[in-house]
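**User:**
My hope is that you can spare some time for a protein that puzzles me. This is the protein in question:
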Amino acid sequence: MVVPACRSTAAQTLWLDTPCDLGAVRDACRRLREFLGQAHLAGAELDAWELVLVEAGNNAVKYAREADRHRPIRLAVSVSNDAVEAHVTDHTAGFDFPVPVELPPPDRETGRGLFLIRSLTDEVRYFRDDDENCLILRRRRRLPVAETGGETLVNLKTRLDETQHTLDLMTEELASAYESLSAVFRFSTELSGQGKPETLARQWLETLLPIVQADWFVLRLAGHDGRALRVVACSDDIHPAPVYPLEPPDHPGLPASVRAALLRKDVWFDQTSPGWPDGVAVPRGPTGCGFSHPMMVNERLVGVLTMGRSLAEAAFQAQQVNVIETFADFLGLQICNAWFQEEQLRSHLVTRELEIAANLQHSLLPARLPEPAGFRLASHIHSARQVGGDYYDVLADAGGALLLVIADVMGKGMPAALFATIFRTLVHARRDLAAAPGRFLSWLNSSLTADLANAEMFVTAQLAFVDIAARRLCVAGAGHPPLLLADATGAVRAVESAGPPLGIGAEMHYPEESLLLPAGAHVLLYTDGVTEARDATGAFFGFEALKQELARTARERLSAPATRDRLIARLAAFGNDTARADDQALLLLAEEP
């Protein structure tokens, strides 16, 4: 790759080839710093160049291709009377150089090094090639003041007068900046001890008025939704409109604060401006001026601060505008930080509540499944969120018969979990109905319909009574996916759930289907989250795939736990670790070999 040479003339140059290693890069950067020090660069310049070279070198090491790690990284600096130029040549895959280079958001882990490099140099160029890349950095030297030589006393006097005037202006600006910074620090100290910044805003904006020689102010916040500007603080003698929507109205006379919020920039006004100044009447005089400044934090509109004067002839000076903007931006940052802390607290409380609910819901599931003679049971449940609406249970009577229960409450999260808990309570309350699953579902429906209707929810469920001794299976369903029954040959029969979901109507009939358990029987109850699991392309796992997996495990005479594990592994492989969008539950009964 051909890279342009250093543009400086009469330059001193040092080239270093260093191994692709962080320690070696830092050693090379220290040697380059010593070289620059011999060229009489000031201490601050040396610090800046060392930091820039270390950042560039570290990136060259971090992103080097594995096949090219044996190739050296070339670091070079060239010093002339007017500038320093550095070349960093690496063997990474390269990147698209951003223009402009922006400071990345706080939650992003990359990009700060490039922003730092661009900030500390005057010019950056990047040449990218298949084999190697070259980053060229250039920074003008901060030269010492030249000797006056034969300069006349008149010229010296003129320069001294100009310098004195500049120093006077700088002193005045520094004094104003000191006063504003002092107020900001006092505000910060008081804020840390008292909490919400909105409650202190009025007090501190009153303090700001004499500092910037303003007569009145209006502070509006956009709130969490960002749809309107609401007054939270204003001077005593003005009466602004309490709320302004941030959707542009039909008329052209937008208040300054609304225009500043919509345009994301300062909006100035005087007595001739439409909608002046902010829907307020200022009694101090018929004329006036001011501006509205939007308070932005990471491109989020926090609010708008409007500051005004009574006389249009006395416009704000540049340093006063800087003070107002600095104070407003600091206030906006504190308000946004307070919002963030409130959101974190609410999120933490919700998370803790969900953890408690998840533990409670888990405790409602059978701690240990029964062990019927000649058969094994196995189960699995997964909630798409911390809590969900899927539920299973197994009730055993004294004679060894079992009632297999599975249910799916429409929806996810806390409401579904609450109804799953209610459903479980009702099931355990009428164990006497276990042998008649159709009657059991009718009673459950009449007990739940009123509450489900109020919540606009419903429940699908399936009950299967298994008489182990008689090898008889009696099934009834309420809008639930069909039960699957496989025999030792791999033949699979689907037992449909003919009844409607629970909660659709008060008086419902739920038919039963009775059949014998074949040799090597595998009985599977499941929720629709199993068959409706999706892969990365959005395709469903499907009913036929589930039947095929059950047939295969039945032919292999796998136990219930082994069958469950096979199904879970198959679902995981199908989904390729994609997030499951729905709750999933399995309940298996399998005859032991």
